[in-house]
Design a protein that fits this description.
Elements lengths: L3 E4 L16 H9 L3 E5 L4 H7 L13 E4 L5 E5 L3 E6 L4 H18 L11 E3 L4 E4 L7 H7 L4 H13 L3 E6 L3 E6 L4 H12 L6 E5 L9 H5 L3 E4 L3 H15 L1
Parallel strand pairs: 1-2, 1-10, 2-3, 10-11
Antiparallel strand pairs: 3-4, 4-5, 6-7, 7-9, 8-9
Amino acid sequence: MKQLMVFDLDGTLAQSKSAVDEEMAPLLAALLSVMQVAIISGGSWPQFEKQVLHYLPAAAPLHRLSILPTCGTQFYQYDNGWKQRYAENFTPAEKKTIIAALQQAVAETGFTPEKTWGEQIEDRGSQITWSALGQEAPPEEKKTWDPGFSKRKQIRQILDTLLSGYAVNLGGMTSVDITRSGIDKAYGIRKLRDTLGISIEEMLFVGDALFEGGNDYPAKQAGVACIAVRDPEETKRVVETAIAFLK
């Protein structure tokens, strides 16, 4: 019997950088009433607040929800308010090295968009994220920039030669995420195992990028049973099925 359902955020629970919709929020609350839930993403803590937590019903049993920003290098749980259990952040020198490498890789590929919305490089403490069109780009613009990941794969190839001891993953529709080597969703899965005392065999992971090279793929490599979805609409059907089975 599965004890914990783990979700990716962007593209799985919500559209990229968007809030969960009016159907998803109560479904998550209902799922929390029958099992533990975790959400893991390359996004920062404020992104989880903005996209998910502000929309959950007041009566939702939040003590059953674990939040893992930046692929599990940070961990939040609810205990009369949201509390950070730990954070494993970059040093200032590491951040400087990563940002310089990102700027060089983008310049070498020439993949500089004509228009951006907000900052392209975001310091998430334990992760540096480059968003090609900017942090506030509308989803319809993101969908057409790199649908086959070809541009970002070229950027990653250059970054792999520039950065030793770091992991480069492709996230969302336009992002490149950089963490210390070994920091990915497999790392987050192991953190969930160790923190919650739930075995990997008792977990189920749901994500939209479970293909090789996708930022959800490491969860599959960690040995978690996985369900691949194309979008939040498919995720809703997975959640509905789980609720019906466990009630």
